[in-house]
Amino acid sequence: GAVVSQHPSRVICKSGTSVKIECRSLDFQATTMFWYRQFPKKSLMLMATSNEGSKATYEQGVEKDKFLINHASLTLSTLTVTSAHPEDSSFYICSASGGQGEDEQYFGPGTRLTVT
Amino acid sequence: GNSVTQMEGPVTLSEEAFLTINCTYTATGYPSLFWYVQYPGEGLQLLLKATKADDKGSNKGFEATYRKETTSFHLEKGSVQVSDSAVYFCALMGAAGNKLTFGGGTRVLVKP
Q1: Which residues, 6+ apart, have CB-to-CB distance to A63 below 8 Å?
Q2: Which residues contact A81 (CB under 8 A, 6 or more apart)?
Q3: Chain-chain contact of A34 with B46 (C-beta, under 8 angstroms)
Q4: Beta pairing partners, B74
Q5: Residues in chain B within 8 Å Cβ distance of A43
Q6: Whose CA is closest to B7, among B93, B87, B101?
Q7: pLDDT tens column, B60-72
Q8: String of b and e for B67-79 (b: at least 16 CB within 10 Å)?
């Protein structure tokens, strides 16, 4: 099946700094990528949807200036958490779909962010 | 808005036991329904799906039937293995778009 990777798998950063998480589709072209946040023992919550070459669409309550999403190519999307705070500590997961009406999303393994 | 409710875990079973994970949903229109599985240290993988009422999705011995009358999509497996230990997520995709709405996940632990 289709493979999606995320890098890094774990990151620790200091409060006030920014951190970038990469999501790559390794063997298909992802016209749409999704970013989710998962709290401990909680469900995945969609943060934003991005289409290659256009601005991301953010879900209600997600600060677009804090969570910057770039989808510059059909195989790469990045999520940058700017001016991180401890409450941003979470598990961030991306998924990708190949477009053309295909509804299946392929998920990355996730990135554990800890802000100290 | 759309929502998915699934039973809380953890669910602990012995090998070869019968597994049921309940899932109910609220949605407008006719959503597609999914079960995803997340093995330790890995990303979510699609386990099975159903796109219309009375459809049955099946894979790896797991089954789930789209029941519109009860707005449910319960996951079942007749004889679990230790390798089925994972977290299972029920999800729906609304008819209007491509966004997934997830349930809270159910951790299943199968003991030898």
Answers
A1: none
A2: A18, A19, A20, A21, A66, A67, A88, A113
A3: no
A4: none
A5: 4, 89, 102-105
A6: B87
A7: 999 999 999 999 9
A8: beeebbbbbebee
Q: Please indicate whether, in this complex, the C-beta atoms of A95 and B44 are within 8 angstroms of each other.
A: yes
d(CA A91, CA A64): 18
Residue B37: per-residue pLDDT: 96
pLDDT tens column, B21-59: 999 999 988 899 999 999 987 889 999 999 999 999 999
> Which helix (H) or strand (E) covers residue B3, if one does?
strand B3-6
Do the chains contact at A103 and B104, CB–CB below 8 Å?
Answer: no
Please give the structure tokens belonging to residue A32: 């749409």
From CA B87, how far away is CA B13, in angstroms rounded? 14
For residue B98, the distance in angstroms to the closest alpha carbon of chain A comes to 6
Measured distance CA(A75)–CA(A17) in Å, rounded: 26
The two structure tokens encoding residue A83: 């001016």
Which amino acid, residue A36? Y
Instruction: Name the amino acid, one letter, at B70.
Output: T
DSSP state of A55: P
Q: In what order do the strands lie in the sheet with B19-21?
A: B19-21, B75-77, B62-65, B56-59
Q: Do B89 and A108 touch (CB under 8 A)?
A: no
Window 30-59 of B, Cβ < 8 Å to A: 32, 36, 41-46, 49
